[in-house]
Amino acid sequence: MRNFISKSAEAIPPSGIRKFFDLALTMDDVISLGVGEPDFTTPWNVCEAGIYSIEQGTTSYTSNRGLQQLRDSLSEYLKIHYGLHYDADREMVITSGVSEALDIAIRAVIDPGDEALVTEPIYVSYAPCVTLAGGIPVPVPCHEKDQFRLMPDALMEKVSKSSKVLILNFPNNPTGAVMKRDDLKAIRDIVIDHDLLVISDEVYAELTYEGSHVAPATIDGLWERTITLNGFSKAYAMTGWRVGYLCAPESLCDAALKIHQYVMLCAPVMGQIAANSAIRNGEAEKDKMVTEYRVRRNLFVHDLNRIGLPCHVPEGAFYAFPSVKSTGLSDFEFAEQLLKEERVAVVPGSVFGDAAKDHLRCAYAVSRKDLKEAVNRIERFMSDHCA
Amino acid sequence: MDEKDLLILQLLEENSRVSVDELSVMTEIPARDVKSRITDLEDAQVIRKYSAVIDWERAGNGEVWAIIELKVNPERDFGYDRIAERISKFKQVRSLRLITGTYDFQLLVTGKNMQEVARFVSEHIAPMDRIRETATHIIMKNYKENGNTLCGHEGTERIPYSF
Q1: Distance from CA of B23 to the nearest CA of A (A)
Q2: Which residue out of B17, B18, B27, B163 would a mutagenesis test of the A interface target, given it has the greatest number of A Cβ atoms within 10 Å?
Q3: At A141, phi and psi to the nearest 5?
Q4: Which terminus, N or C, of chain B has the lesser number of Cβ atoms within 10 Å?
């Protein structure tokens, strides 16, 4: 029998932490700082909107682009909150989470052989999506000394004639790094000079703790060459509802919409209705969650530094990204032994690219009580191993 | 009162045993300032006292709780205030509010058993001057107290790792 697996499916790596995952499932009393989702449940008024829609029998497809009222709300919301201008009828598609938005954005613009510049450390999906589209992911390292922001010289070093796309994710998973307006302006000229398209995943935008989020498309000269991706999962604790969106100039949006209509048809209708309720009535609940994340960040980062795991203060998202270099253990060794001995789950940085090695991604999207207990366990682990 | 005061109040309401040092880290305010802000809030009686939220049902002391509604004739020059003050002096009365609607006052009352609550209402509250009518509702089960859910659990198990 032939090997039926496609070359592109073979080319993408399996999950870097499968082993940890399986191990953690066999253990009791694990405190997991390894989860990339909020610990809050979706605000109840948002759930109610979803439940009511089901009770009313609203269980059908929506238009490919997504519910008109959700797109209208979003268009208004983006304008007010980020100064982003996208037309609800021509420049927006509602997707099944940002994951789908990312996939269709990449497939809409990447041809075989095109290079996509991907900042590193970075969420694990970007490079495989580029590979599946036939493109070549090119990592652009971001360093701790720059608080993991993308620096112009790092970008210049990797940009080539084959570069077509620059993928950004700020606030960043896993580092919590944020790009301020001046940081984005500093890379704008390179983007324009090399005629690049920006794909910007801003799913953590609402979780920006110092100042406000700056969307790359609001930088002069970038709107026309940017695809903006965002969603409801992180800000409104709606991961399981699977609702995201893609915004772009009409021609780019149409290309992504074509792929979306063939592969997804539409995002789940009850999720879209709940998402609309989140934008219209979820602001207060969202703000409460953001305040709580900030409080946890302050406590947790303070504690990590106190026990000897140096950690910069992340300005966004809900991840702390301490270095384990001083312990003499690699990030994988640290994470594995910590799980086995102290039942604390963290993600080794290397999973997020070479630039992330010697670090751990610790999600502080867990209760303060669990965070405190996790710190106690990590401290005990450190005193056993790194005295 | 500014945003930082509000944050301190929220954190204290959630856990009044949190230390000043911890509050300082959480709120990004120097410990000395946290301390003086709390003192100011105490002096202004914004913070009335520090107490615990107790699930009495679980504590199993068998106390009965009841909501008592009262129709009251207000007093010339004093309105409801003097009668409210008198009622609030009973140690059985755990809270007292002036409300809109059919009744004027709503009381939360405790007693060792139903008979004691009934006796308290009939012997001490109902005969008071200016009380026109009472309605007693025995509390059967508490589901949520002071913002804290006392039953069931929220959310489901999350997977241990996700990116």
Answers
A1: 9
A2: B163
A3: -70, 140
A4: N
Residue B154 is predicted with a pLDDT of 56
Closest CB from B7, B25, B160 relative to A30: B160
Residue A262 three-state SS? helix
A32 → closest Cβ in B11, B22, B160: B160
DSSP 8-state secondary structure symbol assigned to residue A355: G
Q: Does B11 touch chain A (CB under 8 A)?
A: yes
Place A369 in a pLDDT band, splitting at 50, 70 and 90: very high
pLDDT score for A309: 96
Choose, out of A18, A22, A26, A35, the residue to mutate when testing the contact with B (most B CBs < 10 Å): A35
Domain shared by B38 and B100, yes or no? no
Tens of pLDDT along B1-59? Answer: 899 999 999 999 999 999 999 999 999 999 999 999 999 999 999 999 998 888 777 78
Contact, B134 vs B62, CB < 8 A? no
ipTM of the complex, rounded to two decimals: 0.74
- Using the beta-carbon criterion (under 8 Å), do A36 and B158 form an inter-chain contact? no
Residue B156 has pLDDT above 70, yes or no: no
The whole domain housing B21 covers 3-43
* Interchain contact, B163 vs A25, CB within 8 Å: no
E strand or H helix at A165, and its extent? strand A163-168
Residue A200 has pLDDT above 90, yes or no: yes
* Structural domains of chain A sorted by starting position, each given as residue range(s) with its CATH number in brackets: 7-42+284-385 (3.90.1150.10), 58-281 (3.40.640.10)
Chain A to chain B, count of Cβ pairs less than 8 Å apart?
53
Tell whether B69 and B137 lie within a shared domain.
Answer: yes
Are B61 and B96 contained in the same domain?
yes
Contacts of B22 in chain A (CB under 8 A): 299
Over pLDDT 70: what percentage of chain A? 100
**CATH code, B33:** 1.10.10.10
Give, as one character, the DSSP assignment of residue A113.
T
Q: Do B158 and A24 touch (CB under 8 A)?
A: no
Yes or no, beta carbons of B163 and A173 under 8 Å apart? yes
Strand order in A244-247's β-sheet?
A: A92-95, A244-247, A226-231, A197-201, A163-168, A115-120, A136-141
The verdict on residue B146 lying in a domain is no
Please determine, for residue A351, whether its predicted confidence score (pLDDT) is greater than 80. yes
Residue A379's Cα: distance from chain center in Å? 29
A35 touches chain B (CB under 8 A): yes
Pair of tokens at residue B121: 């209402």
Task: Verify whether the Cβ–Cβ distance B158 to A302 is below 8 Å.
Answer: no
Reported as type and span, the H/E element at residue A93 is: strand A92-95
For residues A29 and A343, the answer to whether their CB atoms sit within 8 Å is yes
Q: What is the CATH number of the domain that holds B92?
A: 3.30.70.920
